[in-house]
C-alpha cells in the first residue's frame, strides 16, 4: 500500500473497515496504517461514512473482527494524540522551568550582590567607629605568633575581627569566638570557618559594652552551632586593660588648652 495513492486502495480500506479481509491481509494493512497518516485519515472517513449508513438501516452488531480493528485503530490514534500532547506538555514544562531557573539565578545574584554591599558597608562603619585595636595572638605550636587583629569602639558593642593563617579545623568542627568578662565569664560571639587560605573577617556583636569585657578567645568546638560554653582547645586570644589604656590615652594626648610659645 502506497501512502501517496490512497484512492487505488480504497476498496481494500473499505474491506478492512468492514472486517472482510483475511487475517494476513488485515495485518499488513494494520502495519501500514501505523506509518501512513493519509491512509488513517481515509480509513477514518470510510468508518464515519459507514457509521452514518448505520443510522439509515436497522442496527446490527458488528463482527468481532471489525470491532477489534476499530478499537485497535482508535487506541492507536489515542496513543498518538496522547504522545503528542505529552511531548508538547513536556516541552512547555521544560520552558517554564528554564525561565524559572534563569529568574531564580538572577534573583540570587542580585540578592548576593546586595548582601555583599551591605556587609561591606557594615564593615566600613565598624572600622570608622573603632577607636582601639590589639593583636590576636596565636596560642598553638603550628600557628604564627599573631593571627590577626581586633578593632573595637570602646563606647559601642560592635567590633571587627580580622584573621589570617588559621588552619582549617577537623571535619565537623568550627571555630567559636568568646568574649571574656571581667568576672571570668564567657559570652559567645559566634562561630566561623576560615577560607581555604586561612582567612576570616568577622563583625562581632557584644551583648554588653566593650568596657564590660577584658579579652577575647577562639576555641575549637563541635559544629555547626558550637557550644554554650568553651569546651575545646583555645587556639588564639587577646586581653586588654581599659583603665591602663585610658590613663595612657590621657597622658599621650596633648592638652588643647596648654600654652605653647
From TrEMBL:
Gene3D superfamilies: Anti-sigma factor, zinc-finger domain. Residues 11-40 form the Putative zinc-finger domain. GO terms for biological process: regulation of translation. This is Regulator of SigK. GO terms for molecular function: sigma factor antagonist activity. InterPro entries: Anti-sigma-K/W_factor (IPR051474), Anti_sigma_zinc_sf (IPR041916), RskA_C (IPR018764), Znf_put (IPR027383). One of its GO terms (cellular component) is plasma membrane. Residues 91-232 form the Anti-sigma K factor RskA C-terminal domain. Its main location: membrane. Keywords: Cell membrane, Membrane, Transmembrane, Transmembrane helix.
